[in-house]
Specification:
- This is Exportin-1/Importin-beta-like domain-containing protein.
- By secondary structure, this protein is an all-alpha fold.
- It has a domain of 196 residues.
- Helix 15 packs parallel to helix 18, helix 17 packs antiparallel against helix 18 and helix 26 packs parallel to helix 29.
Length: 804
């Protein structure tokens, strides 16, 4: 085997160890991660990565190995001053273009995205790079061209903090060269949109590409009239009706409205259609994704052109009506938050909605004295429709500010006194507002009897949303009779049959919230505890949904659906831990929840910074849950979860090196929380107790993971300072047998010795360690310098030996 083949084999083995290695062998994963970081800093990385991407093997190398190769090339291109670096060799461009053409059909979408990002990074840094790339692009298949055109303008608007070696002049040149091709790109996208009608995935890709170019001002040179009538705007508007691409279409329309002052009028003209075809069905189905997207778009229109809305045209009134229907009152009243928090929110916003009621009463007044032939008052059609649309909002305001306050508001101002004269129009509109609320309450009361007469309806999809909401309201307002034994059994019968009912996750949450309200009103403590345990034991569906995400690969092809499912699953876990984790009787349940989450295949793959970059939402969900667990759970649960906590700490140390800022910050936040809890345990008991104490368990985890922490955490001096403080405290107590100042010294020595030899002069390593460990300067100078040194070393940005 020649040297190149041997290097490829070692690279494949290291990537496999990271992504598929044994869960209980963290040392092997750590060694693989460090070897890969060293390879990325070496000149050999160019050759081995490009050879993998252009390999003629059939079948091709594993997808995760190819993805790693593309990502490694992108990182080397973005860090041209790295050791063994310099500019990218000429063959890299050819290899990336060849790989883009090959894997636009064969590989997973994220592989093509990484290849395209590497090509964009090359174009940014090379003279004539944009022109050369567009000249070669015409020979690529359409899917590859579409992805490359999507990421290319992102280099113009992205945060510059992640790049090195790119000054303002070079970025300005790149922007001008990219924008010169905007007309031809729009023609290309127009042709693609004509063929995207029957292909939802293609439709979404075209919209993503259009969004990237809209953000850099691709229509800035176009006359307003031509822009409003452009076929691509029609394509984006029509895509609002395609569920799979709705979120991207909203982003495109919002960006256009915010940039071009002539577009709000064009959007207003379509407002009645949006209201009838999109908004009203979404409100009826409580489709929060559609509602939130339309609210964002409508608010942008109102902010961009308030004068148009103030003219009071039919379209403007349709916009105002739509926004009223999406009122904040809905979300406060239907919030899943605890009653105390919700009550606080209601009190906070009551003045706002009281003022809104004044405005609505004024707007709903009859503005004419005309009568029909029978002498009846004529109400204009527009006003009559407006009043019909107000019914739901008036009920929400009444519920939010309270019935007494609502009635007082209606009768305020002294107009009921015979001694004062008031316009009949004001009296009429106030009576209308009062009658609408009473009418709605009467309808609700009548519906309750029908719902209770057939509780099995709650499993029917067509009425599950309404019934689950009604059940929660009933349990909140009627807890005094809902906690009777026969009613509790009915509630448990409903909860235990949820899985068979094919309910949406939000409906399940409504039902669990309803049952929890009823159980919390049970006065007998032992009975309440047993009932809560019975409820929680059947609530593992949230964890199972998270594991199902691993099995259902179609979710990963739809980022919006994947993120939504992940958020719901993690939200379910936090119902469990934050609400009941602090209670000793539920400690074992929380531990089992942690075990189930940790065993999910998606969590097991978080073994390198590369995989963390691709799953930032999952990293944040996992580390946030671990933080909640270690903060909220009782001591017994902490002790029982030693192996799980050690695994989570190791993963957090690795995730902290991710390039994705959110993932890295979430991981460092968890480690900081871990160190805070450890320090609190040491301060609480200055003497090291038995192995059964949580402080001992946490200290032992730190003692075993310290070297890995030093090797991975290079972005935050704060975490290293926390660790030094804990080691310093343990030095003066009987905790010294587990964790001490000598421990920190050994870890620092290991971290320095792991640095490539070219970064330190001869004998410098022996000089640095004593300086860093000087107790007089450790918290003010030493650790910040050490953190920055390790950070620069691990990123491969140090060009000369350090002189400390």
């Amino acid at each position: 085997m020649d040297e190149a083949s041997e290097l490829r084999a070692r690279l494949a083995a290291a990537v496999h160890a990271l992504n598929h290695g044994a869960q209980h062998d963290p040392s092997a994963r750590l060694a693989a991660n460090q070897w890969l970081l060293a390879l990325q800093r070496s000149p050999q990385a160019w050759g081995v990565a490009t050879s993998l991407l252009v390999s003629p093997e059939n079948p091709p190398p594993p997808a995760d190995l190819l993805f790693f190769a593309a990502q490694m090339l992108r990182r080397k291109i973005q860090c041209p001053g790295a050791a063994g670096g310099g500019g990218a060799p000429p063959h890299v461009l050819d290899a990336l273009l060849l790989a883009a053409g090959r894997f636009c059909y064969l590989g997973p979408p994220r592989l093509l995205t990484q290849i395209s990002l590497a090509l964009a990074a090359l174009a940014l840094r090379a003279d004539g790079g944009v022109e050369g790339l567009f000249a070669r692009m015409r020979h690529l298949p359409e899917p590859a061209v579409l992805e490359l055109l999507t990421v290319l303008p992102e280099e113009v608007v992205q945060d510059q903090s992640g790049d090195t070696g790119v000054d303002a002049a070079a970025r300005g040149r790149f922007t001008r060269e990219v924008m010169a091709h905007a007309p031809s790109v729009l023609e290309f996208l127009l042709g693609q949109s004509d063929n995207a009608a029957a292909d939802d995935e293609r439709n979404r890709r075209v919209l993503r590409c259009l969004l990237s170019w809209v953000r850099v001002g691709c229509f800035s040179e176009m006359p307003p009239a031509a822009l409003a009538a452009h076929p691509l705007l029609t394509f984006a508007f029509n895509s609002l009706q395609v569920p799979f691409s709705f979120d991207v279409a909203v982003e495109v329309m919002t960006e256009l409205v915010s940039q071009y002052q002539d577009l709000p009028q064009a959007f207003l003209n379509k407002m009645p259609y949006i209201r009838e075809a999109l908004l009203l069905p979404a409100l009826a189905n409580r489709n929060e994704k559609i509602i939130a997207g339309l609210v964002c778009l409508m608010c942008e229109v109102g902010q961009a052109a308030p004068a148009l809305v103030a003219e009071g045209s039919v379209q403007a009134l349709a916009l105002a009506d739509a926004l009223l229907r999406c009122s904040l009152a809905h979300f406060i009243l239907e919030s899943d938050a605890q009653t105390d928090k919700r009550n606080a929110a209601q009190e906070l916003f009551s003045p706002v909605f009281s003022s809104l009621l004044d405005a609505l009463l004024f707007r709903a007044q009859i503005d004419t004295d005309e009568h029909d032939t029978d002498g009846e008052l004529c109400i204009p059609d527009g006003l009559a429709q407006f009043r019909m649309n107000l019914e739901e909002l008036l009920v929400d305001i009444c519920l939010l500010i309270g019935g007494s306050a609502y009635i007082n508001k209606i009768f305020s101002g002294g107009w009921v006194l015979a001694s004062q004269s008031f316009a009949w129009k004001e009296v009429e509109v106030r009576m209308y507002a009062l009658s609408m609320v009473y009418k709605s309450f009467g309808d609700v009361i009548g519906s309750y009897s029908k719902m209770l007469a057939s509780s099995q309806r709650i499993s029917k999809p067509i009425s599950s949303n309404a019934c689950s909401l009604a059940l929660r309201k009933l349990c909140e307002d009627g807890s005094s009779f809902m906690n009777e034994p026969q009613n509790l059994e009915i509630l448990f019968w409903i909860s235990e049959g949820m899985d068979a009912g094919n309910l949406r996750i939000e409906d399940e949450e409504e039902i669990i919230s309803a049952i929890t309200h009823a159980l919390c009103s049970v006065l007998v403590k032992e009975l309440r505890k047993s009932l809560l345990a019975r409820l929680l034991c059947s609530s593992y569906s949230a964890v199972e949904k998270l594991i199902d995400i691993d099995r259902d690969q179609s979710l990963r092809q739809n980022p919006a659906a994947y993120t939504e499912a992940l958020n719901f699953a993690v939200h379910g876990l936090h119902s469990v831990v934050e609400e009941f984790g602090h209670k000793e009787e539920y400690g074992a349940l929380c531990v089992r929840t942690f075990e189930t989450l940790s065993s999910a295949a998606s969590i097991s793959t978080l073994n390198s910074s590369y995989t963390c970059d691709q799953e930032p939402d999952l990293v944040e969900a996992y580390t946030n849950f671990a933080s909640t667990f270690i903060r909220c759970c009782p001591k017994e649960a902490i002790v029982a979860s030693g192996s799980l906590l050690e695994l989570s700490f190791q993963k957090a140390a690795i995730c902290s090196t991710a390039m994705h800022r959110g993932a890295a910050l979430a991981a460092m936040s968890y480690m900081s929380c871990f160190l805070d809890v450890s320090l609190a345990a040491a301060l609480e008991s200055r003497e090291c107790l038995s192995d059964g104490s949580p402080g001992v368990v946490l200290a032992q985890i730190l003692a075993r993971c310290g070297e890995g922490l030093m090797s991975n955490v290079h972005k935050s001096a704060t975490i290293l300072q926390q660790l030094a403080a804990l080691c310093s405290l343990c030095e003066r107590t009987t905790w010294k047998g587990i964790l001490s100042w000598d421990s920190l010294c050994r870890w620092l020595q290991a971290a320095v010795k792991s640095m490539p030899s070219e970064y330190l002069r001869q004998g410098e390593a022996e000089m640095i360690i004593p300086l860093w460990l000087n107790p007089q300067i450790i918290f003010t100078v030493g650790l910040p310098i050490m953190s920055e040194t390790i950070m620069l070393t691990c990123k491969g940005k140090v060009e000369e030996p350090l002189n400390v």
